[in-house]
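FAQ

Q: What does a record look like?
A: Structure on top, sequence underneath. For example:
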């Protein structure tokens, strides 16, 4: 399997898992069937990322905008998250996976909140890949919450506005302590960020895969990793050969 892996492995991969509904529609199945098939790909993606030596895998499981979906679909998605944590937590723990959760904890059902806390607490000391579950997550909401925290610190006199830097902001958003994603993958052919990791993805490479999330298998994941390996990241600087010639 090593030969499938690019030399330049991203430390942090973030995925927008899109296309479950279309996958189900194409088969004449209810949308929930697509989400259920999507959960199986979540398990496979964690394993594939860990084998490829990716250190952080962030998955967009439920956005703060997803509450606008039909009541039944929201309830099915909640059920699937419960199912995933109940079924897979022990195995994730055994495989040394550390689970982290980003997103707003307010307005989520108490039992789900408790499951998320349990997943984080139980795996806190694990040293393998970090699986970051973005749940009830929206990047603008995350920034608003961070700004409020910083404003409170200023108001109470604990922080001088002049001392606020990018590091201050990075330390108040949900991903504090987690490196920025190097690679953002979105499945289903859509080419949007949809309010996902707006701050963190400033220098990420984007790979848009045409396949629907329930079809995103090991081979598709490696295809995205290989595409990343071919990219030339400059972070706003000049390409190395040009530097050598020009200045
Ligand atoms: C987008 O497909 C997918 C989602 C809104 C939910 C993703 C959730 C899962 C894969 C399952 C739960 C996750 C975990 C981590 C256990 P869509 O429904 O928008 O598809 P469409 O654009 O084809 O309608």
């Amino acid at each position: 399997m090593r030969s499938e892996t690019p030399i330049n492995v991203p430390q942090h991969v973030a995925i927008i898992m899109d296309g479950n509904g279309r996958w189900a529609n194409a088969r004449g199945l209810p949308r929930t069937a697509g989400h259920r098939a999507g959960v199986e790909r979540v398990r496979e993606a964690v394993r594939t990322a860990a084998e490829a030596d990716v250190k952080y895998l962030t998955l967009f499981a439920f956005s703060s905008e997803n509450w606008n979906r039909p009541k039944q679909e929201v309830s099915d998605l909640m059920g699937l998250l419960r199912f995933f944590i109940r079924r897979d937590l022990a195995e994730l723990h055994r495989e040394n996976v550390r689970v982290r959760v980003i997103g707003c904890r307010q307005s989520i059902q108490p039992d789900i909140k408790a499951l998320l806390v349990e997943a984080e607490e139980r795996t806190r000391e694990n040293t393998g890949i970090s699986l970051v579950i973005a749940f009830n997550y929206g990047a603008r909401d995350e920034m608003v919450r961070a700004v409020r925290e910083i404003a409170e610190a200023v108001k109470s006199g604990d922080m001088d506005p002049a001392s606020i830097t990018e590091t201050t902001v990075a330390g108040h958003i949900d991903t504090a302590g987690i490196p920025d994603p190097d690679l953002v993958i979105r499945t289903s052919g859509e080419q949007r960020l949809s309010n996902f990791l707006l701050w963190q993805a400033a220098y990420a490479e984007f790979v848009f895969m045409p396949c629907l999330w329930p079809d995103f298998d090991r081979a598709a994941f490696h295809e995205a990793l290989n595409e990343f390996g071919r990219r030339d990241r400059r972070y706003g600087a000049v390409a190395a050969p040009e530097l050598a010639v020009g200045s």
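Q: Is there anything notable about this one?
A: The mean pLDDT is 94.
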